Amino acid sequence: GDSVTQMEGPVTLSEEAFLTINCTYTATGYPSLFWYVQYPGEGLQLLLKATKADDKGSNKGFEATYRKETTSFHLEKGSVQVSDSAVYFCAPRDTGRRALTFGSGTRLQVQP
Amino acid sequence: NAGVTQTPKFQVLKTGQSMTLQCAQDMNHEYMSWYRQDPGMGLRLIHYSVGAGITDQGEVPNGYNVSRSTTEDFPLRLLSAAPSQTSVYFCASTLGRNTEAFFGQGTRLTVV
Questions:
Q1: In Å, what is the CA distance from A15 to each residue of A26, A40, A81, A112?
Q2: B102 to chain A: closest CA residue
Q3: For residue B112, how many other CB atoms are within 10 A of its CB?
Q4: Nearest CA in chain B to A102
Q5: What is the model's pLDDT at position A30?
Q6: What is the C-alpha to C-alpha distance for residues A72 and A84, in angstroms, rounded to an integer?
Q7: Residues of chain B with pLDDT under 70
Q8: B10 at A interface, C-beta within 8 A
Q9: Quick one: pLDDT band at residue A93, thresholds 50, 70, 90?
Q10: How far apart are CA B100 and CA B94, in angstroms?
């Protein structure tokens, strides 16, 4: 079945630093890939997605590229802000599955 | 637009009690899911539904029941609560297999 490996957290950065959160996945088919973000005390919300190889998803300054050859979907942002402090989840969705598979999440803490 | 609504937001139960967590969506989505979120373990799928009258088990279904009598509602029942079911529960809905999931705000359940 599907599985996801995310880098361990917490990741602590200073404001305006560069962010990378690694995500690799295994899937039996050709999945769509999603990044979700969870702000403190809230539910998850979609951050960005990519549905085919070499697609780049982007939103709010975050980007991730669908790398089929390395089965990866790493999340990047050039300059983080304090307001980006949250937990980030990578989630593939294989075409044969009825629900998302989530990684363990990576907590990001941005200090002023 | 309400999206996905979960009730209650907080609940404390005694071991052995039963209760139902409510989930309703107003987007006419076919797919609905229940997840539990525990520290360091990401989100794990409990049960899901691909339409009214159709449900199936996820990764951690033991101790939980679901039904889907309408497209809008997908309640999760705990038949006899145990301390191991202390968690944050999220309901999600999706229009189709490769589209984003919308999450409720979560229910924080404590079993003492």
A1: 33, 18, 5, 5
A2: A45
A3: 10
A4: B43
A5: 78
A6: 22
A7: 1, 97-98
A8: no
A9: confident
A10: 6
